[in-house]
Amino acid sequence: MSKLRVGAQLIIWGQRVKSDLVGVLDEVSSLGYEGIECGTDTFNAVSDAKGILESRGLSLAGFHTGIGAVSREEVEKALSTLEDLGGRYLIFSGAGGRENSDENYLKNSKRLDEYGRLAMERGIKVCYHNHWQEIVNDERGIRLILENTDPRHVSLCVDTYWVKHGGGDPLEFIRKHKDRVVYLHLKDGTVEGMRKKPPEFVELGRGVINFPEIIEEAKSLNVEWVVVEQDRTSLTPKESMAISRRYLKEKFRL
Predict the structure, then answer these.
(1) Nearest to 26 by CA among 64, 47, 56, 67
(2) pLDDT at 199
(3) Looking at the chain, which terminus has fewer C-beta neighbours within 10 angstroms, N or C?
(4) Which domains does the chain possess?
């Protein structure tokens, strides 16, 4: 069983990531997170990204971007930055596009596979991150992606709450696709939010997700990173991420 590393997705800090990255990383570090996940362009204007991370005891877990938001050249640049900073995961989402169509899934599966091949040459894994759209209709979106990509090139980053929002069971989803799961987004939401768009996101342990079994399953699969992701909050980002970090420490000793 693996020792899980706990990361923070910076999305909850919003525009502060661009205007005050160092301040955001100070907060992340002070809360006891071991690493971060962020957008592919986060460090573009930073001269000493490696030093900034290392001085705060943080690792770069990976980058996350929409499959339709970046060109091949931008993907190659992101891979180079990951390699330089020691990140091992490049995560994509949004393969179905606005239409959530089979055509888009098939087109973007080819791109995912190509990017996964490029990443593998550098020792980096490409992962696909689900939203609710890939889960509805008997997981049609996920099935199209997995059936049309090489397992050596494309793995899964499972977002726990988006599976639930799409009508699935996160634990069963992870077990079903265990051969492709290498990375988790730990996300929670309320019962009332499950059928709303947008849903209501909450701190870990305050919503409907059954994390104890999910954490045990992640350990058994030798997942390296579990990344806390909360898209929005009614508190401050630091307060919300502190609550979730404390939950993982007290409940699972992570």
Answers:
(1) 56
(2) 81
(3) N
(4) 5-252 (3.20.20.150)
